[in-house]
Write a structure and sequence with these properties.
CATH topology: Rossmann fold
Radius of gyration: 14 Å
CATH superfamily: Response regulator
Distance between the termini: 15 Å
Strand content: 5-15%
Bound molecules: 4-nitrophenyl phosphate
Shape: globular
Number of helices: 5
Length: 158
């Protein structure tokens, strides 16, 4: 059975596209692409159909991560279609919890709870920050968190 991962942030143009690209790369490096599907979505609808923020795109390009997906808003169906639904910060988590239909199968998880120090667990929204340092930081957090999650998932721990 293919396992499905959905990366979620507020706008789906900064953090969750990076998390999606990093998760795809992590799975690809492990030779497990046939067993996993990864997508991303937004809490809000403001950027539907758009490419990621140019700073997210340049950060992914710098790290040789291809990206062609476009922003979309999370749907009720997603909560049953995806096995693992990751938020980037506490606001995403509380939004996900209130949007999730009762009894839906998706496991709602804070991405930073995997492989990151307590002080680093929140992947901060870099959208309103000047420059691209916040995007690089989010990328670095995603690399550690995706690797740690994937290791636990293939070991059957989650
Ligand atoms: P993201 O960043 O949630 O990491 O994609 C944001 C992008 C856009 C907005 C907020 C956060 N916005 O308010 O438009």
């Amino acid at each position: 059975m293919v396992k499905r991962i959905l990366m979620v942030c507020l706008g789906n143009i900064c953090r969750s596209p990076i998390a999606e690209a990093v998760m795809i790369d992590t799975i690809h490096q492990a030779g497990a692409s046939a067993e996993w599907q990864v997508d991303s979505a937004a809490i809000g609808d403001w950027h539907r159909g758009k490419q990621p923020d140019h700073r997210a795109l340049s950060t992914m390009k710098k790290h040789n991560l291809p990206y062609n997906n476009k922003a979309r808003q999370i749907t009720k169906q997603d909560f049953n279609d995806f096995d693992y639904i990751f938020g980037m910060d506490e606001e995403n988590m509380s939004d996900l919890k209130s949007l999730a239909p009762a009894g839906s199968k998706g496991n709602l998880l804070l991405l930073g709870n995997f492989g990151l120090e307590k002080s680093e667990r929140i992947i901060v929204d870099p959208y309103y920050q000047k420059g691209d340092a916040g995007f690089e930081k989010a990328y670095q957090q995603c690399v550690k968190a995706c690797a740690a999650f994937f290791e636990q998932a293939v070991a059957g721990k989650i």
